[in-house]
Amino acid sequence: MIDYSEVFVALDVAKLKNAVAIAEAGRDGEVRYFGEIANTDAATRKLVMKLETRYGHLTFCYEAGPTGYGLYRLIKSLGHDCIVVAPSLIPAKPGDRVKTNRRDAVAMAKLLRAGELTAVWVPDERHEAMRELSRAREVAQKDLRSKRQQISGFLLRIGLHYPGKKTWGKAHLNWLASRKLDHLEQRIAFEELMGAMRQAKERSDRLEQAIREAVPDWSLAQNVVALQAMRGIDLITSVGFLAEIGDLSRFESPRQLMGYLGLVPSERSTGDSVRRGNITRAGNIRARRMLVESAWSYRFPARVSKEKQAKIEAVPRPVREIAWKAQTRLCGRFRTLTRNGKRSTIVATAIARELSAFIWAVDREVTGTP
Q1: What span, in angstroms and rounded, lies between the C-alpha atoms of 226 and 359?
Q2: Separation of alpha carbons 193 and 157, rounded Å
Q3: Sign of the C-alpha dihedral computed for residues 53, 55, 58 and 62 taken in this order
Q4: At what angle do helices 41-52 and 70-77 cross, to 10 degrees?
Q5: Residue 145: domain span
Q6: Is 21 contained in some domain?
Q7: Eight-state DSSP code of residue 271
Q8: What's the rounded Cα separation, in Å, for the pair 186 and 179?
Q9: In sequence order, which residues have a C-beta less than 8 Å from that of residue 202 and are 6 or more positions away?
Q10: Cβ–Cβ contacts within 10 Å for residue 103, how many?
Q11: Do the domain assignments include residue 151?
């Protein structure tokens, strides 16, 4: 027999088993540990069916983590509410030193009932696939940089140093190919390192081409094109940023986006005392890093290169105006802060914060969001 009350269900998700706790609605509603179930679709369906026979409305939650969003999509497909919780924003008691799956599930159920949990944005399956592709290319680039550092370190140990200025261009690769090493063992080691570097480069190029081919059919394809009008943002950065952040229209103001990216100052104020510290570093670290890397391009005077001109012409006039306004302001801002004695890393972070506001404005123009 159905009891038409509401129940809040928290799952502490793990690789093999999920700990389940429930909290009935109301201040005096019972909170209890339900037990563990296998982390499978069949076990989850069985749990939902069992709770449906007793409660009229079910609300589920679990922490965002390595298990992904499959559980969220399954519960939503069964017709029930579910949120994926931001782990860093779960309230915790400072004196609580005991952590178990059972205690975590019970605590989450109480917090869900009280409305104290913050949900993360859940992408659709295609968006999640684009995110995985973008991250795979990022990993390939890290591997390529590592292989190049190994080659440079090897040559430095045997007393060889490239005399040119720009490394890993055509001239540098020709110089590497012309090196004659004295010992067979050195030649073998060098060829293995060069072969590994070439494989990493080919892998990165394949993934980049896959991204280029996937973008036109993506729901955020117009946003990708529009963001490339901004200085310091190319195709890979645009795709990577949007894949990590998702739908920017859910941020009602630029300040919300800045806060989500962790680019706003931390603060500890009390009474008349106001103390602000370093940036919070909350939110998505990959998106924040991309913006900071893009911000470094604004240390040079405002201009439009031939390569960027084609990308600017591909976007509507309002977007072009925003991109140029961003460039003139941020280039001047970078030089002003540098002249005032600010460290270059702090200046780049400040520019990244303002850059996120211009990105928000570009998205508003593309989507037509008021």
Answers
A1: 9
A2: 14
A3: negative
A4: 40
A5: 125-215
A6: yes
A7: T
A8: 11
A9: none
A10: 15
A11: yes
Place of tokens 């129940």: 7
> Going along the chain, which residue ranges are E strands?
3-13, 17-24, 31-38, 55-63, 81-85, 265-267, 276-279
Identity of the residue numbered 125: E
Q: Do the beta carbons of residue 97 and residue 75 sit within 8 Å?
A: no
- CA–CA dist 122, 113 (Å, integer): 21
Same domain, 291 and 183: no
Which residue is associated with the tokens 């890290």?
142
Two tokens, residue 32 = 């209890």
What distance in Å separates the CA atoms of residue 243 and residue 237, rounded to the nearest whole number?
A: 10
Verify that 333 and 250 share a domain, yes or no.
yes
CB 110 within 8 A of CB 233: no
For residues 196 and 284, membership in a common domain is answered with: no
Burial status of residue 166 (CB atoms within 10 A of its CB: 0-12, 13-18, 19 or more): exposed
For the record, the structure tokens of 251 come out as 């941020």
pTM over cut 0.70? yes
* 3 state SS of 368: coil
Residue 107 corresponds to which tokens in the numbers above?
Answer: 């605590």
Burial of 4 (0-12, 13-18, 19+ CB in 10 A): exposed
Q: Running along the chain, 370 residues long, what does each successive block of 10 average in pLDDT?
A: 78 96 91 96 97 94 95 97 94 87 96 95 96 98 97 95 93 95 96 97 98 96 96 97 94 95 88 84 92 97 92 95 97 96 96 97 91
Instruction: Locate 44 and state its tokens.
Output: 């989850």
Q: What phi, psi does 281 have (nearest 5°)?
A: 60, 30
Which residues, 6+ apart, have CB-to-CB distance to 150 below 8 Å? 193, 196, 197
Taken in order 288, 291, 292, 293, the sign of the CA dihedral is: positive
Residue 269: count other Cβ atoms within 10 Å of its Cβ. Answer: 9
Coil/strand/helix, residue 156: helix
Token readout for 329 is 């302001």
Taking the CA atoms of residue 75, residue 80, residue 84 and residue 85 in that order, the dihedral angle to the nearest 10 degrees is: -140
Looking at the structure of the chain, the number of domains it has is 3
